[in-house]
Amino acid sequence: MSDIEITKYTGAAGGWGSMKGMSKVLPREGISPDLLDALRRQNKPEGVMCVSCAWGKPAKPHIAEFCENGAKATAWELTRERVTPEFFQQHSVTELESWPDHDLEQAGRLTHPMRYDRATDRYVAASWDEAFAAIGAKLKTCDPKKVVLYASGRASLETSYMYALFARMWGSQNLPDSSNMCHETTSVGLKNAIGSPVATIQMDDYEKCDAIFAFGQNVGTNSPRMLHTLRDCVKRGVEIVNFNPLRERGWERFTDPQNPVEMTTGGSTRIASQYHQLRAGGDIAAILGICKIVIEADDAALASGAPRVVDHHFVEQHTVRFEEFAAYCRKADWSDIVRESGLSREAIEAAARVYMKAERVIAVYGMGITQHRYGIDSLYMIVNLLLLRGNIGREGAGPGPVRGHSNVQGQRTVGITEKTELAPVERLKELFEFEPPTEKGWDTVDCCRKIIAGECQGFVQLGGNFLRATPEHAAMREGWAKLPIAVHIATKLNKSHLIPGEESWILPCLGRMEQDMQGSGRQAVSMEDSFSHIYGSVGKATPAADTLLSEPAIVAGIAKAVLEPNSNVPWDEWVDDYGLVRSAIENTYPDKFLNFNERLFTPGGFWKGNPASHRQWETESGKAEFNVPRALNAAGFADAEGRFRLVTLRSNDQFNTTIYGYDDRFRGISGTRMVAMMNRGDLARMGLKGGDFIALESDAEDQTDRVVEGLMVVEYDIPAGCIAGYYPELNYLIPVEHHALDSHVPAAKSVPVRIRR
Ligand SMILES: Nc1nc2c(c(=O)[nH]1)N[C@H]1C(S)=C(S)[C@@H](COP(=O)(O)OP(=O)(O)OC[C@H]3O[C@@H](n4cnc5c(=O)[nH]c(N)nc54)[C@H](O)[C@@H]3O)O[C@H]1N2
Ligand SMILES: Nc1nc2c(c(=O)[nH]1)N[C@H]1C(S)=C(S)[C@@H](COP(=O)(O)OP(=O)(O)OC[C@H]3O[C@@H](n4cnc5c(=O)[nH]c(N)nc54)[C@H](O)[C@@H]3O)O[C@H]1N2
Ligand SMILES: [Mo]
Asked: What 3-state DSSP class applies to 135?
């Protein structure tokens, strides 16, 4: 950690600031020819797909089709540093467990399969054969229904398909994905409302929209390449209305690093034309206000014979429950709307005017919507708003969730799911002749409960840092230490590896940037972006060590060690040639992956299709569904004296639990991550000021003691009653039962807390 500095950042997103951000991380990790080549080929047809976010890769890319954070992620993977068997000899596991997340990953790339040795409290090297044999022997003593096979959203479609197939052949459907902590609210909510669990828009819809409504997504940090798209929209006169408790710089102003005029003159483009700082969880009420205005304007139009405001042809033909929803909106009380949203009636009216004027509206959203107790209801409100004016299922309009990990959506597409109805059970039976499990597997919340209760017999993670990313961190650590076996397929060391249970293994794999040579030659892998476009990706960098195996090889190694041979599943041939895995994917999902190998390198990716985008509604009613929200505020707990809503979010210098550094540039916070961003009035009321240290403690109904100490107060432009701080440091404070209804996404954006000095 360097010196702590709190300043106000006045720059735009992008621009020289992003160059400086890169220039801090890149040299430290080593600027090699491999890194430069990977960046040059990043996100381009026939190139390599970025390991950072899931934003689309255009058919006609920019010269540099990468952003500050994509470059950091690439440098992080292609670092010069190595974590070798000697490293583990020097550092005991108990010692390593005390290292900050940043230092663990900064130590470099894992090079050898490692087994935990309790006698010396060290990880010791093993051969791959020993590793697979020991893991297979131990897993075979476990009940597959009590073993978790987690995936973190980065591994390719090929690996993910093999992993899910292995789990089901073994008899487990405990296949949670990072999506369970992320956009599962989208998967459940959009499916219920419009019959399609993902964005209905594609990248070129942004060229046709005339307004964008954005909720709870931090574009400048988490999907910076999207800023180019937004900038082009603004230049066309598109109005962007943003809702976020924090003023996130990316939604305010952007300087295009590829525009010499903007770069030399210090110019920038204004992004949002309206910025509404609502309370955490205030989206339901804010959108209700807009809908109320739309419906009342439509009522007035009907009475006076003026043109209708609601697209009533669409509503009659394509939707159900409009009348119920309209009645709910008419009855809604402005004082409730204003109180729960934290916005003035005038602000909501201004947003409604943009909505009613626009012909084609896209709604963008992220974790600020999905990670709430009533996150599904917030999402339903977004859908309701869009449906009112027929803004789904035509060009330039529709919901556009911005997904997280670079292949998180794709992992779900090829079978990593705990839900039987989403698994191709019949097809798998036919193709591979086995009986797949049909009872629902464990989602992330179930896994946490089972781990805490000591009822989980084993945990395999395909990437990720489950222990650190999940809620209820203190109890999770205790449970984690009791796991009979943990197997980590990983590129870098993290906390999940360092609280070993009875048996623990680290299996180091190739990263996506690296050349993957197998029996049939250099391999390509594939992934799916936020727009359901699928791309091939070819790594060319020299692998971090010649002892690494690819992810498909590791999954096949474990599968062969656990399963009885099945002549229908040629694990070795699949590892030799990933094209055969793609053929298996095509055979399993012919509608989405037709001619998969032939189309692998389609510029701009090939689209797997989406029924709702042409108004085919695969819902229970066969129509798009209006939904009346179950609560007026998404937080799911009442206001009380001294109770705050804690928002846990990402800094500009991290990728989830991977911490690149301590500089959250746009928020002006540098040198520490242990902060509580607080409203000025709240501080005055409590007799606190910036620089003071406080502790936060849980204020959940269950009265369990949860506390994080040593947080520095930062006076911040945030609504009263809300506090913001960083994930994963604050995950101690989130009760495991504080999760979104229906989707079970941990409710990390409104956590009930109190201040303790
Ligand atoms: N560089 C980088 N890129 C990433 C990641 C990363 O860590 N680093 N993570 C990846 C992953 S897995 C994901 S899921 C995405 C995450 O990307 P985001 O969806 O942007 O997630 P967060 O950073 O958690 O920020 C959520 C935003 O919601 C706002 N917010 C909080 N509560 C509310 C609310 O109640 N209402 C509204 N309207 N807004 C609210 C916060 O202020 C914040 O701006 O990014 C992906 N891309
Ligand atoms: N409080 C709070 N908690 C949250 C969130 C929040 O906003 N607030 N966000 C949630 C969200 S949206 C998500 S997606 C989860 C993220 O949870 P995870 O996906 O589980 O966590 P990551 O930090 O992305 O995982 C990082 C690790 O992945 C491994 N890794 C990196 N690249 C590769 C690779 O190519 N192959 C393999 N096999 N391993 C690799 C490295 O070992 C690295 O240490 O966290 C969730 N937790
Ligand atoms: Mo995510």
From this structure: helix
- The DSSP call for residue 415 is T
Distance 201 CA to ligand 2 centre (A): 26
- At position 410, the amino acid (one-letter code) is G
Please give the average per-residue pLDDT across 476-493, as a whole number.
Answer: 98
Architecture of the domain whose range is 184-402: 3-Layer(aba) Sandwich (3.40)
Angle CA 58–188–381, to nearest 5: 85
Positions of CATH 3.40.228.10 in the chain: 184-402
The SS3 call for residue 625 is: strand
Asked whether residue 521 carries a pLDDT value surpassing 70, the answer given is yes
Nearest to 228 by CA among 207, 200, 254, 264: 254
294 close to 352: Cβ distance less than 8 angstroms: yes
Q: Which CATH class is domain 82-182+407-594?
A: alpha beta
In the chain, list all ranges with CATH 2.40.40.20: 644-756
Q: Name which residue sits closest to atom 21 of ligand 2, judged by CA.
A: 464
Q: Which of 656, 729, 736, 753 to mutate to test the pocket of ligand 2 (most atoms within 8 A of CB)?
A: 656
HSE-CB of 701 using CA atoms within 13 angstroms: 7
The CATH class that applies to domain 644-756 reads mainly beta
The answer to whether the predicted template modeling score (pTM) of the entire model surpasses 0.70 is: yes
Residue among 217, 372, 465, 530 whose CB has most ligand 2 atoms within 8 A, to mutate: 465
Domain with CATH 3.40.50.740 in the chain: 82-182+407-594
What are the tens digits of pLDDT across the range 572-592? 999 999 999 999 999 999 999
* Residue 222 alpha carbon to ligand 1 centre in Å: 7
Distance (angstroms) between ligand 1 centre and the Cα of 372 equals 12
Q: pLDDT tens-digit profile of 119-141?
A: 999 999 999 999 999 999 999 99
* Residue 152 Cα to ligand 2 middle (Å): 6
Binding-site residues, ligand 1, Cβ < 6 A: 52-53, 69, 182, 215-218, 221-223, 243-246, 248, 280-281, 283, 366-368, 404-405, 647, 649-650, 654-656, 749
- Report pLDDT digits (tens) over 44-68: 999 999 999 999 999 999 989 999 9
